[in-house]
Fold each of these.
Amino acid sequence: MNKSYLISEINRLKTEKNAIILAHYYQSEDIQEIADFVGDSLELSKKAQTTDADIIVFAGVYFMAETAKILNPNKKVLLPDINAGCSLADGCHHDDFKLFKEKYPEHVVVTYINCSAEIKALSDIVCTSSNAEKIINSIPSSKNILFAPDRNLGNYLSKQTKRDLILWEGSCVVHEAFSLDKLIEIYKNNPTAKIAAHPESESHILKTAHYIGSTSGILNFIKTDTATTFIVATEAGILHQLAKTVPEKTLIPAPSVQDNTCACSECAYMKINTLEKLFQCLKNEGPEISINEKLRIQALEPITKMLELS
Ligand code: SF4
């Protein structure tokens, strides 16, 4: 289907059905352009909580759409492709995590939002990369903490907050793929550049960074810092918003270990959504996210605690 037809049909259906399109920064440029709101996990959760639309089309991955449904049980929440997973969420299964948690009965369980509703339901509090440090610091120092599912973010938080965290061994396939050797090579050729990295990256990448933060944190850093060249160690979709807001700055995506022609890192799960799937999803009002009410209420509690603290 032709792109301009798809765009006009999506806009028509959106108005007709009182729908809102929420898109993560890692979505394709076409989807970011047609979205009503583009943000990171925390911003999208807040937007999902306050929208008065009848239908939320969540252009992101499954756990994000599921979080929107947990917050909006009476709204129809759609995901353009139901197979949009996440290596962090998919690598932390309920039964395994329950056994893991049972080994640490006295620990406060903090989970990164990149996990399923079943894992959220087993948590005391949820966090995103924007508020994780604040959430950890809100827990009394007398309490021990178990953190899941991202070991890289967990290690970073442990250093920042000077707390020993028990970590679940999960990781993001995109942020773990950055090549330190290639990054150093690029930096040698651009010695005035500043490196901005997401804390899901491995510690050897974080050690090189001038700035470490969430996706929206990286966006703000690049917008406001005086440097003119930046090497960006996160998913390459963020470059679209940056190119629009700071066209005068040079942005270099951090290279991944794997040989690739664009030398950048893209999340295959995020990019599984397309403009055509978005159109079909709005037209057919599916795939729709559904969640058992008992599980929803259990998962809502740690998300609400996070939102109150954010
Ligand atoms: S970039 Fe990583 S954490 Fe984000 S959705 Fe993709 S696999 Fe999951």
Note: The mean pLDDT is 95.
Amino acid sequence: MKKVTVKDQIGRVAGRIAAFQWYVDHPRLEDGRCRFCGTTAACSCISNTKRNLIYWENRLAVLRAESTLTAKEVEKILKSSKLMVKKREQDEMLERLENA
Ligand SMILES: [Zn+2]
């Protein structure tokens, strides 16, 4: 079995950060309701997600310190994670439009 490296862990954390960041930047409402909790009035999803984001950003900083990667290399991983999330969200949105 392949050993999970710090770099793998950084990749996973970067993926989470990218997904949370996307949600904070693009909170999705359907018919005025949050797609996660379904409530209309200001729900707590965004603030919870922001809190998660801070947690995982701190985690990423710790992992980076444990790794031999430079800040620039970690930035690159994060950037590609963000592109991946963007593509996934856009594909999903297209699919929803097609099925509408
Ligand atoms: Zn919500």
Note: Strands lie at 29-30, 33-34.
